[in-house]
Write a structure and sequence with these properties.
Elements (H helix, E strand, L loop, with lengths): L2 H11 L25 E11 L2 E2 L2 E8 L7 E10 L9 E9 L8 E10 L6 E13 L3 E9 L15 E8 L6 E8 L7 E11 L2 E10 L11 E11 L2
Antiparallel strand pairs: 1-2, 1-3, 1-13, 3-4, 4-5, 5-6, 6-7, 7-8, 8-9, 9-10, 10-11, 11-12, 12-13
Length: about 240
Protein backbone atom coordinates (compact mmCIF):
# COMPACT_ATOMS: atom_id res chain seq x y z
CA UNK A 1 0.00 0.00 0.00
CA UNK A 2 1.62 3.28 -1.08
CA UNK A 3 1.60 6.46 1.00
CA UNK A 4 -1.20 8.17 -0.94
CA UNK A 5 -3.53 5.18 -0.53
CA UNK A 6 -2.69 4.96 3.18
CA UNK A 7 -3.52 8.65 3.52
CA UNK A 8 -6.95 8.21 1.87
CA UNK A 9 -7.72 5.20 4.08
CA UNK A 10 -6.76 7.15 7.19
CA UNK A 11 -8.94 10.13 6.23
CA UNK A 12 -11.92 7.83 5.68
CA UNK A 13 -11.39 6.14 9.05
CA UNK A 14 -11.22 9.41 10.95
CA UNK A 15 -13.60 11.59 8.93
CA UNK A 16 -16.02 11.61 11.85
CA UNK A 17 -13.26 12.98 14.12
CA UNK A 18 -11.82 15.37 11.53
CA UNK A 19 -9.27 16.96 13.85
CA UNK A 20 -7.15 16.03 16.89
CA UNK A 21 -5.12 16.83 19.97
CA UNK A 22 -2.03 18.73 18.85
CA UNK A 23 1.32 17.75 20.30
CA UNK A 24 2.05 19.81 23.40
CA UNK A 25 5.07 20.84 25.47
CA UNK A 26 3.68 20.94 28.99
CA UNK A 27 0.45 22.94 29.01
CA UNK A 28 0.30 24.48 25.53
CA UNK A 29 0.68 23.32 21.90
CA UNK A 30 3.55 25.79 21.49
CA UNK A 31 5.72 23.40 19.48
CA UNK A 32 6.40 22.59 15.84
CA UNK A 33 6.78 18.88 16.55
CA UNK A 34 4.33 16.69 14.59
CA UNK A 35 3.34 13.08 14.94
CA UNK A 36 4.94 11.21 12.01
CA UNK A 37 2.71 9.81 9.27
CA UNK A 38 0.51 6.97 10.57
CA UNK A 39 2.08 7.17 14.04
CA UNK A 40 -0.62 7.11 16.71
CA UNK A 41 -0.33 8.85 20.07
CA UNK A 42 -2.40 8.16 23.20
CA UNK A 43 -2.35 10.50 26.17
CA UNK A 44 -3.83 10.46 29.67
CA UNK A 45 -3.46 13.79 31.51
CA UNK A 46 -4.56 14.67 35.03
CA UNK A 47 -4.54 18.08 36.74
CA UNK A 48 -5.20 18.10 40.50
CA UNK A 49 -4.84 20.22 43.60
CA UNK A 50 -6.05 19.88 47.19
CA UNK A 51 -9.82 19.44 46.96
CA UNK A 52 -10.42 20.04 43.25
CA UNK A 53 -9.24 18.98 39.82
CA UNK A 54 -9.69 19.56 36.11
CA UNK A 55 -11.34 16.81 34.05
CA UNK A 56 -9.00 14.05 32.95
CA UNK A 57 -7.90 14.28 29.32
CA UNK A 58 -8.13 11.07 27.29
CA UNK A 59 -6.62 11.97 23.93
CA UNK A 60 -5.65 10.46 20.60
CA UNK A 61 -3.45 12.04 17.91
CA UNK A 62 -2.17 10.75 14.58
CA UNK A 63 0.02 12.06 11.78
CA UNK A 64 -1.89 12.10 8.48
CA UNK A 65 0.30 13.52 5.70
CA UNK A 66 2.73 11.23 3.85
CA UNK A 67 4.96 14.09 2.75
CA UNK A 68 8.56 14.68 3.75
CA UNK A 69 8.38 18.43 4.37
CA UNK A 70 4.76 19.37 5.11
CA UNK A 71 3.20 17.52 8.06
CA UNK A 72 -0.19 17.45 9.76
CA UNK A 73 -1.73 15.80 12.80
CA UNK A 74 -5.38 15.27 13.68
CA UNK A 75 -7.20 13.67 16.64
CA UNK A 76 -9.72 13.81 19.48
CA UNK A 77 -9.93 14.61 23.21
CA UNK A 78 -12.45 13.39 25.77
CA UNK A 79 -12.41 15.57 28.90
CA UNK A 80 -14.05 13.55 31.66
CA UNK A 81 -15.92 13.70 33.92
CA UNK A 82 -18.35 16.45 32.84
CA UNK A 83 -21.17 17.98 34.90
CA UNK A 84 -23.91 17.74 32.25
CA UNK A 85 -24.30 16.12 28.83
CA UNK A 86 -21.58 14.17 27.03
CA UNK A 87 -21.32 16.77 24.26
CA UNK A 88 -19.39 18.87 26.79
CA UNK A 89 -16.65 16.23 26.92
CA UNK A 90 -15.60 16.17 23.26
CA UNK A 91 -12.99 18.40 21.65
CA UNK A 92 -11.22 18.26 18.29
CA UNK A 93 -7.90 19.83 17.32
CA UNK A 94 -5.37 19.87 14.49
CA UNK A 95 -2.26 21.55 13.14
CA UNK A 96 -0.24 21.70 9.94
CA UNK A 97 3.22 23.02 9.12
CA UNK A 98 6.84 21.94 8.94
CA UNK A 99 9.71 21.11 11.24
CA UNK A 100 13.03 22.95 11.34
CA UNK A 101 15.10 22.96 8.15
CA UNK A 102 12.33 21.33 6.12
CA UNK A 103 11.39 24.55 4.30
CA UNK A 104 13.05 27.22 6.45
CA UNK A 105 15.68 27.29 9.22
CA UNK A 106 12.80 27.63 11.72
CA UNK A 107 9.89 25.30 12.28
CA UNK A 108 6.35 26.57 11.78
CA UNK A 109 2.89 25.33 12.77
CA UNK A 110 -0.62 26.72 12.52
CA UNK A 111 -3.65 25.05 14.03
CA UNK A 112 -6.70 25.00 16.27
CA UNK A 113 -7.32 23.40 19.67
CA UNK A 114 -10.16 23.09 22.17
CA UNK A 115 -12.79 23.20 19.47
CA UNK A 116 -15.87 21.91 21.27
CA UNK A 117 -19.38 21.03 20.18
CA UNK A 118 -21.66 22.82 22.67
CA UNK A 119 -22.09 26.47 21.58
CA UNK A 120 -21.00 29.06 24.14
CA UNK A 121 -20.02 26.27 26.56
CA UNK A 122 -17.12 24.35 24.99
CA UNK A 123 -16.54 26.17 21.68
CA UNK A 124 -13.27 27.83 22.74
CA UNK A 125 -11.98 27.37 19.14
CA UNK A 126 -8.45 28.61 19.79
CA UNK A 127 -6.45 29.32 16.63
CA UNK A 128 -2.68 29.64 16.97
CA UNK A 129 0.59 29.96 15.06
CA UNK A 130 4.05 28.96 16.31
CA UNK A 131 7.68 29.20 15.20
CA UNK A 132 10.58 27.30 16.79
CA UNK A 133 14.34 27.02 16.70
CA UNK A 134 16.72 24.48 18.26
CA UNK A 135 20.16 25.42 19.51
CA UNK A 136 22.69 22.63 20.00
CA UNK A 137 23.33 21.69 23.64
CA UNK A 138 20.88 24.41 24.76
CA UNK A 139 17.45 23.22 23.67
CA UNK A 140 14.42 24.24 21.62
CA UNK A 141 12.70 27.60 21.99
CA UNK A 142 9.24 28.27 20.55
CA UNK A 143 7.06 31.35 20.37
CA UNK A 144 3.46 31.74 19.24
CA UNK A 145 0.26 33.76 19.26
CA UNK A 146 -3.31 32.63 19.85
CA UNK A 147 -6.89 33.86 19.50
CA UNK A 148 -10.04 32.15 20.75
CA UNK A 149 -13.74 32.68 21.36
CA UNK A 150 -14.26 36.05 23.05
CA UNK A 151 -17.42 34.85 24.80
CA UNK A 152 -15.61 32.06 26.64
CA UNK A 153 -12.08 33.39 27.04
CA UNK A 154 -12.74 36.25 29.45
CA UNK A 155 -10.94 37.82 32.39
CA UNK A 156 -12.07 38.02 36.01
CA UNK A 157 -14.42 40.91 35.14
CA UNK A 158 -16.12 38.98 32.36
CA UNK A 159 -14.42 41.05 29.65
CA UNK A 160 -13.03 39.48 26.50
CA UNK A 161 -9.45 38.24 26.99
CA UNK A 162 -9.19 35.93 24.01
CA UNK A 163 -5.82 36.78 22.44
CA UNK A 164 -2.25 36.49 23.66
CA UNK A 165 1.11 34.81 23.28
CA UNK A 166 2.53 31.37 23.97
CA UNK A 167 6.16 30.46 24.63
CA UNK A 168 7.98 27.24 25.44
CA UNK A 169 11.35 25.62 26.08
CA UNK A 170 12.46 21.98 25.85
CA UNK A 171 15.91 20.85 26.91
CA UNK A 172 18.08 18.39 25.00
CA UNK A 173 17.46 14.80 26.03
CA UNK A 174 19.87 13.71 28.73
CA UNK A 175 19.83 10.02 29.54
CA UNK A 176 16.07 9.33 29.59
CA UNK A 177 14.94 12.80 30.65
CA UNK A 178 13.79 16.09 29.10
CA UNK A 179 12.98 19.29 31.03
CA UNK A 180 10.20 21.40 29.53
CA UNK A 181 8.37 24.62 30.36
CA UNK A 182 5.75 26.78 28.67
CA UNK A 183 3.16 29.50 29.18
CA UNK A 184 -0.05 30.90 27.73
CA UNK A 185 -0.48 34.60 28.50
CA UNK A 186 -3.61 36.44 29.56
CA UNK A 187 -6.10 36.39 32.40
CA UNK A 188 -8.55 33.88 30.98
CA UNK A 189 -9.43 30.32 31.98
CA UNK A 190 -6.55 28.86 29.94
CA UNK A 191 -3.85 31.33 30.96
CA UNK A 192 -1.12 29.55 32.92
CA UNK A 193 2.52 28.54 33.00
CA UNK A 194 4.25 25.40 34.14
CA UNK A 195 7.30 23.19 33.95
CA UNK A 196 8.06 19.53 34.36
CA UNK A 197 10.32 16.54 33.92
CA UNK A 198 9.58 14.12 31.12
CA UNK A 199 10.87 10.58 31.76
CA UNK A 200 11.17 8.16 28.83
CA UNK A 201 10.73 4.54 29.92
CA UNK A 202 11.14 3.52 26.27
CA UNK A 203 11.35 5.51 23.03
CA UNK A 204 7.54 5.31 22.79
CA UNK A 205 6.39 5.61 26.43
CA UNK A 206 6.96 8.64 28.65
CA UNK A 207 5.64 10.25 31.83
CA UNK A 208 5.59 14.03 32.39
CA UNK A 209 5.19 15.40 35.94
CA UNK A 210 5.27 18.97 37.23
CA UNK A 211 3.38 21.99 38.65
CA UNK A 212 1.03 24.31 36.76
CA UNK A 213 0.41 27.92 37.83
CA UNK A 214 -2.75 29.76 36.64
CA UNK A 215 -2.58 33.48 35.87
CA UNK A 216 -6.20 34.21 36.84
CA UNK A 217 -8.89 33.26 39.33
CA UNK A 218 -11.16 32.34 36.39
CA UNK A 219 -8.96 29.29 35.84
CA UNK A 220 -10.95 26.09 36.41
CA UNK A 221 -10.33 24.95 39.96
CA UNK A 222 -9.69 28.50 41.19
CA UNK A 223 -6.32 27.64 42.71
CA UNK A 224 -2.80 29.06 42.72
CA UNK A 225 -1.16 25.81 41.64
CA UNK A 226 -2.06 22.39 40.29
CA UNK A 227 -0.01 19.25 39.71
CA UNK A 228 -0.13 17.43 36.40
CA UNK A 229 0.78 13.86 35.52
CA UNK A 230 0.76 13.05 31.80
CA UNK A 231 1.25 9.57 30.37
CA UNK A 232 2.04 9.40 26.64
CA UNK A 233 2.27 6.33 24.41
CA UNK A 234 3.25 6.27 20.72
CA UNK A 235 2.54 3.35 18.39
CA UNK A 236 2.66 2.48 14.71
CA UNK A 237 -0.74 2.22 13.04
CA UNK A 238 0.51 0.14 10.11
Amino acid sequence: MNNKIRFLVLVSLFSSVLLATPSTVFWTPCTTYFQPFMKGHLTYDTYVRGKSMLPNDYGFTVGVLPFEKIQMEIGYDAMLPVPNSNDEASFINAKIGWQEDALLPVGFAIGIFNKGFRPDVTTYDVFYAVISKTFNKIGTFSFGVYSGDKKLLVNENGEADNTGIMASYSSPKFSRFIVSADLMSGKNSMSAWGFGLNTYFTDNISLLVGPLFPFAKTFTGNGNMMWTVQLDVDFNMI
